[in-house]
């Protein structure tokens, strides 16, 4: 018997044993835009054998490096919105309520993810170059325009709209391109590139809090714009795709992929934890100021949180390749619940308590942000990764849109007290954990709760 026949016989036997002894598995099925299912379980086996991933090498790690710089210029700004919001709330827009000012940054976060519903399919069809060029120009231009802003509508257009589009244009290909070069080590590679967002969330707030006093808000913001321009330019020349577009690829979103129940549940889980995630990111500095901490201490909580998130991206990213990205995200959700109810709520008014919360929550946040795209990638073929990731996160983007304004309204309704906001954050985190476990139960059944996924 030939080697091929032996392998095929072994696969057949394994599938028969699985069908007899285990509950049925709901394997990923890509949806064909024409209306049918793009491939079957047999196609999955054939695809797994035919797709050869470099899993390393000069070109693959160059793409990861380019992704790192693109993520620094996009997610680095996203992780720094707390510093911008606290400063603008105290100066240019001091006559507006926190809920109203929050719309500037929630609009930015919303567009950062929602626009991917179009940019992801464009990446799958045409590659990353046009996206990264446009994203770099819009990020630098939006920040430059923001340095001149004094009115609410100006901040909405410059930061909310222009930087929101720019972040999405840069971030989407930065994440999707890594998946073209890594499969077995995708969680680790994606986590490495996403550390840039955490590092940017350390460098930019520290830089801004120092420059605000020395050279003023306008030139401090322009300095950030210059850094984003340089990092984005590196991403333009180093990020590339490897796999040819799928036969059914098109440069338009396709929400019919939500026929997959596992994708619906994963997207719902990400939606819930992203809603909760942006509340501490947006309010931790304002919370500290409310409790009487100094300006420098309050602003520095954001870089402390983001520094912890760097470790949260690397270490769980390594273990996610062993135990599964969704399992690691469930662990991060549990840690977030503990941080909210065990530290922030009872002890956040003390210096030790708020620092401990920033470290715990930052670590968990890094894991969730880094591995969420990898969770989505488990339910599709690599050629469809950009489309699936972008479409899923277009739904998640609505959580980013409403979380900060709702949080600000809750604080106002409670007379400036943050207890209700903290409780809401922890409860929604807990619900997201149950939804993610529901996705795993759908795929593997209730008895295989320890399966790698």
Low-confidence stretches: 1-50
Question: Percent of residues in beta strands?
Answer: under 5%
Shape: globular
Query: Nearest-angstrom radius of gyration?
Result: 22 Å
- CATH fold-type name: Growth Hormone, Chain: A
Q: How does the major sheet shape up?
A: none
What would you call the quaternary organization? single chain
CATH class: Mainly Alpha
Helix coverage percent:
over 70%
- Write the H/E string, N to C: HHHHHHHHHHHHHHHH
Structural class label: mainly alpha
- Going by CATH, what is the homologous superfamily? MFS general substrate transporter like domains
Number of beta strands: 0
Membrane topology: Multi-pass membrane protein
Protein name: Major facilitator superfamily (MFS) profile domain-containing protein
Keywords: Membrane, Transmembrane, Transmembrane helix
GO molecular function: transmembrane transporter activity
């Amino acid at each position: 018997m030939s080697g091929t026949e032996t392998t095929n016989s072994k696969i057949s036997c394994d599938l028969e044993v699985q069908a007899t002894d285990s509950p049925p598995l709901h394997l990923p099925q890509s949806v064909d835009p024409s209306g049918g299912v793009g491939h079957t379980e047999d196609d999955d086996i054939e695809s797994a054998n035919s797709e050869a991933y470099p899993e390393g090498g000069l070109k693959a790690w160059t793409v990861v490096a380019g992704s790192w710089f693109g993520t620094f210029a996009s997610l680095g700004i996203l992780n720094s919105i707390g510093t911008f919001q606290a400063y603008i709330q105290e100066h240019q827009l001091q006559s507006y309520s926190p809920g109203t000012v929050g719309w500037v940054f929630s609009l930015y976060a919303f567009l950062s993810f929602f626009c991917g519903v179009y940019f992801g399919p464009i990446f799958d069809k045409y590659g990353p170059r046009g996206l990264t060029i446009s994203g770099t120009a819009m990020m630098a231009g939006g920040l430059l325009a923001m340095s001149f802003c004094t009115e609410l509508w100006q901040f909405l257009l410059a930061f909310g709209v222009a930087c929101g589009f720019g972040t999405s244009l840069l971030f989407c290909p930065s994440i999707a391109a890594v998946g073209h070069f890594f499969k077995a080590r995708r969680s680790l590679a994606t986590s490495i590139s996403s550390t840039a967002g955490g590092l940017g969330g350390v460098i930019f707030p520290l830089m801004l809090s120092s420059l605000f006093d020395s050279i003023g808000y306008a030139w401090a913001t322009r300095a950030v714009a210059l850094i984003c321009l340089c990092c984005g330019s590196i991403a333009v020349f180093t990020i590339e795709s490897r796999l040819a577009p799928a036969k059914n690829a098109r440069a338009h979103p396709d929400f019919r992929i939500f026929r997959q129940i596992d994708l619906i549940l994963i997207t719902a889980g990400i939606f819930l934890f992203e809603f909760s995630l942006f509340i501490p990111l947006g309010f931790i500095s304002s919370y500290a100021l409310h409790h009487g901490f100094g300006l420098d201490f309050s602003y520095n909580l954001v870089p402390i949180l983001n520094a912890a998130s760097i470790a949260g991206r690397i270490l769980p990213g390594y273990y996610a390749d062993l135990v599964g990205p969704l399992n690691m995200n469930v662990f991060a959700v549990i840690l977030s619940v503990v941080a909210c109810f065990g530290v922030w709520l009872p002890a956040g008014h003390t210096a030790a308590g708020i620092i401990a919360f920033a470290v715990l929550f930052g670590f968990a946040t890094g894991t969730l942000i880094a591995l969420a795209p990898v969770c989505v990638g488990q339910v599709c073929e690599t050629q469809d990764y950009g489309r699936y990731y972008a479409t899923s996160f277009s739904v998640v983007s609505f959580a980013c849109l409403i979380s900060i304004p709702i949080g600000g309204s809750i604080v106002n309704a409670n007379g400036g007290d943050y207890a209700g906001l903290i409780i809401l954050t922890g409860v929604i985190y807990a619900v997201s954990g149950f939804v993610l476990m529901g996705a795993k139960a759908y795929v593997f059944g209730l008895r295989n709760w320890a399966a790698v996924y």
